[in-house]
Amino acid sequence: MRQFNTPLVLKGKTLRNPFILAPMTTYSSNPDLTISNQELAYYKTRALEFGMIISAATAVSKHAQAFENQITAMSDDYLDSLKKLSKTIKKEGALAILQLHHGGRMSVPNLFENQEVVAPSAVKADRAFAITPRALKTEEVYETIDDFVDAAKRALIAGFDGIEIHGANTYLIQQFFSPQTNQRDDEFGGSRTNRLNFPIKILDKIMDAVKQSSNPDFIVGYRLSPEETETPGITLEDTKILVQSLIDHDIDYIHLSQSSYRNSSLRDPEDKTPIIHHLKKDNSKRVPFIGAGHVYTAKEASDAFGLGYDLVALGSIALSDPHAVKNLQKGKDPSTTFSKDSMIPDNLFSRLEKWSRYDNEPFKFSKQKNTF
Ligand SMILES: Cc1cc2nc3c(=O)[nH]c(=O)nc-3n(C[C@H](O)[C@H](O)[C@H](O)COP(=O)(O)O)c2cc1C
What we know:
Elements: E1 8-10, E2 13-15, E3 19-21, H1 37-47, E4 52-59, H2 79-91, E5 95-101, E6 118-119, E7 134-135, H3 138-157, E8 162-167, H4 172-177, H5 192-212, E9 219-224, H6 236-248, E10 253-256, H7 275-280, E11 289-292, H8 298-307, E12 311-314, H9 316-320, H10 324-329, E13 337-338, H11 346-354, E14 364-365
Parallel strand pairs: 3-4, 3-12, 4-5, 5-8, 6-7, 8-9, 9-10, 10-11, 11-12, 13-14
Antiparallel strand pairs: 1-2
Helix pairs in contact: 1-2, 3-5, 5-6
Residues 22-25, 56-57, 99, 166, 168-169, 223, 257, 292-295, 314-317 line the site of flavin mononucleotide (FMN).
């Protein structure tokens, strides 16, 4: 399929094809949170074929860590670890993007000594593991913005082609934008304009750092979840304004995190227009959009490009089949069986086996255990 092979230029850098490895947490870093050999092998196999690799969510500070064995960019001590990751990816010809993350109230408690779970407001998540977070003081919000900027600077030094600000999937940045989780009364809460302050200040300060660096073509992307189903919660109207703001502040790409690339509004079942059409409507010429969610077959990949996404991220199918891109390019559907051939780290493999989302077709687990 020609479209599956077409190179694309993003901020002066060429992606050899429009397929992106979706950011996926591996729970597999070394105990000291440096990148492990199993993770490097996982990225290396994918970097041989994908146009661009977005790393697993990477903690921007000690208190940003949300999962066990999550890779981190929390201090200069991790520069060597980050360099290993960017080098491994770039050596195989893919662009390397580091996803910058803070878990906020969604962080698993007791990950390390003296861990504090912090969030915009002391609102507990509706999850079995969740505890009531401590609301960040205003000065701490500014420090957290700086943590994102410092992590971006480390990504620059470590040789990445860019970073992705993780503003999706209910983590800290989304918690600031959401009227459900943000009940602050300082400049970071209250009105929608104030709720935008945290993500936009992070973006602006990272952009300044990029402009002052020796790599002004460093890519800065943003991942967002278009809606929350709760009331109050993020609406499509909110997200249209967020998207416009990101564009006004020179974002290089916008990455939609959805259960399916073709989702229409979850809040308004009457509205059948795909979210991507709502969001791209006024901006189509300016900023590339990445679509993600349930792209498992050649037909779905083709359909996603047809809907208007410029780039398509593969998640689960790129875990089961490290050659998903090559197979799609040959017009073949990738393998949906998790097996030793999947080349995914052991901890990730064991977790996937327990996840109910893979209980049903099309995904299967081979009896032959991962021997990675
Ligand atoms: C094991 C696993 C880990 C994930 N970790 C992240 C992550 O670190 N950052 C993120 O933005 N999304 C994460 N996601 C979401 C994926 O990037 C993707 O949006 C989601 O899996 C939907 O795509 P799919 O249907 O192709 O799997 C993760 C998904 C999986 C399956």
